Amino acid sequence: MKRRALLALLGCAGAGMPGAGRAAPADGGSARQRVVVVGGAWAGLSAARELRQMAPELDLLVIDRDPVMRSLPLSNPWLVGRTTERMPRLDRAALAASLGYRFVAADVLRIDRAGRKVHTSQGAFAYDWLLVATGLAYDYSAWFGADQKAADAAQELYPAGYVANELDALKQRLQAFKGGNLVINVPAPPSRCPPAPYERAMLLAWWLKTQRIKGKVTVLDAGGGLPRFTRLFAERYPGLIEFVPYAAIRSVDPFTRRITTDDGDLPFDHAMLLPPMRAGAPLEQAGLLGLDAQGKPGPWAAVDPLRLRSPVDERLFLAGDLLGAVSPLFGHYPKTAHMATRLGQTAARQIAARSRSNGAEPTVTLPDSVCHVWLDADPLEQLRMETTYRLRGDGVIAQAVSQHDNPQPRDEDLHWGLGLYHNAFGAR
Ligand SMILES: Cc1cc2nc3c(=O)[nH]c(=O)nc-3n(C[C@H](O)[C@H](O)[C@H](O)COP(=O)(O)OP(=O)(O)OC[C@H]3O[C@@H](n4cnc5c(N)ncnc54)[C@H](O)[C@@H]3O)c2cc1C
Asked: Which residues of the chain carry a pLDDT beneath 50?
């Protein structure tokens, strides 16, 4: 059997064949229109599920560099051994097969918008509609400039674990810590899951205490901190957490273990170094970033806040943590998994409607976000942070935030996470 015929039988024509997978006609011709989703996590998998349900006629492909998805939500208690890894690992190919779309494990190298192709480590894939949901990337250049050796050393020795493929390295490094000054930092907003560094600081202090490790956690905060946590640090973990406000990291020497901050220099024994964050490399290459006042590309994707379409390409949609500001009132949507699933679903509904020749405008729905945060480890105490949105009369999105104490948690965080896996991704 010829290679192309075999690949077609396996339902993977295009994989591994540079230039293969020519675009199907986008005008409602006989071939199925192709949707490619780049990034298969909270935003991408939710979009895929929604697309499969709303537009089963579309040819749907999800691409992610990792065959297995791991959850960052709920990872902090696992990091210090307070819980097991409660969120299951998802086999992306098996999920795709069960829902009737294709998955390819590949690194996306380049998006060719003019030719409507995604170039990857496994060949090129043509599309009629593209959803980019690649989350975010670290920007070490703010600390190291062009010194790649220092940036690589910082990421290898002192990973922050804010991208899922770093989780094992993060835990291994922590387990090797034998005492002294353990530094974590909170970057300036916008950043991924704003309460997560504070939750982690508390859990690390709890870990030092229960493991009887002589040391302390130093929290270098670019801002003033979350009052709820800073009070708690002082009252419940005195001597174990040193909170330093307005101490943004300016530079790091990963070889001599020294950090320079706005507030002076600091030696450290171990660190979880979280550099400024930005949308990942394919966005810059594809000209999808917002521009600053000087017309230079900024760190985040430019987007139509209601339709999640790129302002420079009507066939390209964006969802998840990579989005730039959506409102003059509050700036960015919170960069949370819950929000990413909602945005993925919104983008999917837009693509499904536009792919049909009658192309009716779908109703615009605004997202919401829920975040379960651990306030203390023993006895367990949690906080639920909720964010809702409404469209004002002038067309601007307004945000409302509320916090709810949960002094006797009964796995509400786990039910929330599993609920998203089940309801948004279609995982069983
Ligand atoms: C410690 C911690 C705790 C958190 N807790 C919570 C919580 O309790 N609740 C909550 O709602 N949120 C939480 N979050 C935030 C949440 O993890 C993120 O908001 C969420 O992961 C964003 O989803 P996303 O789909 O936009 O991006 P991601 O989850 O980052 O997914 C992007 C995907 O794209 C893939 N990708 C990227 N670039 C490429 C490329 N070039 N080629 C191929 N594939 C690529 C990646 O492999 C990845 O799978 C937490 C985060 C952290 C770090």
From this structure: 1-29
- Determine how many CB atoms are found less than 10 A away from the CB of residue 359: 10
**pLDDT, tens only, 11-44:** 233 333 333 333 343 444 458 999 999 999 999 9
Contact 60, 35 (CB under 8 A): yes
Q: What tokens appear for 113 in the block?
A: 């918008």
Superfamily of domain 3-137+278-361 in CATH is FAD/NAD(P)-binding domain (3.50.50.60)
Comparing C-alpha atoms, which of 105, 114, 94, 40 is closest to residue 70?
A: 40
- Residue 6 host element (H or E): helix 3-9
Give the Å distance between the CA of 160 and the centre of ligand 1: 13
Fold: same for 3-137+278-361 and 144-275? yes
* Domain locations in the chain as residue ranges: 3-137+278-361, 144-275
Range 144-275: architecture per CATH: 3-Layer(bba) Sandwich (3.50)
Q: Does residue 199's CB lie within 6 angstroms of at least one atom of ligand 1?
A: no
Give the separation between CA 171 and CA 159, rounded to whole angstroms.
Answer: 9
Whose Cα sits closest to atom 41 in ligand 1? 108
Q: Which residue has the tokens 């708690």?
A: 232
pLDDT of residue 263: 87
Q: In Å, what is the CA distance from 224 to each residue of 185, 186, 229?
A: 12, 10, 11
Report which protein residue has its CA nearest ligand 1's atom 35. 39
What CA–CA distance (Å, rounded) separates 422 from 101?
Answer: 17
Coil, helix or strand for 54?
helix
Helix (H, G, I), strand (E, B) or coil at 335: strand
DSSP helix, strand, coil percent of the chain (3-state; round to 5): 30, 30, 40
- Is 287 within 8 Å of 113 (Cβ atoms)? yes
**Strand 180-186 relative to strand 136-138, pairing:** unpaired
> Which tens digit of pLDDT belongs to each residue from 305-326?
999 999 999 999 999 999 999 9
344 Cα: distance to centroid of ligand 1 (angstroms): 12
| Sign of the alpha-carbon dihedral angle for 315, 319, 321, 327 | positive
Q: Ligand 1: which of 36, 193, 288 to mutate, judged by most atoms within 8 Å of the beta carbon?
A: 193
Tokens for 363, please give them: 């109703």
Q: Give the C-alpha separation, 162 to 274, whole Å.
A: 8
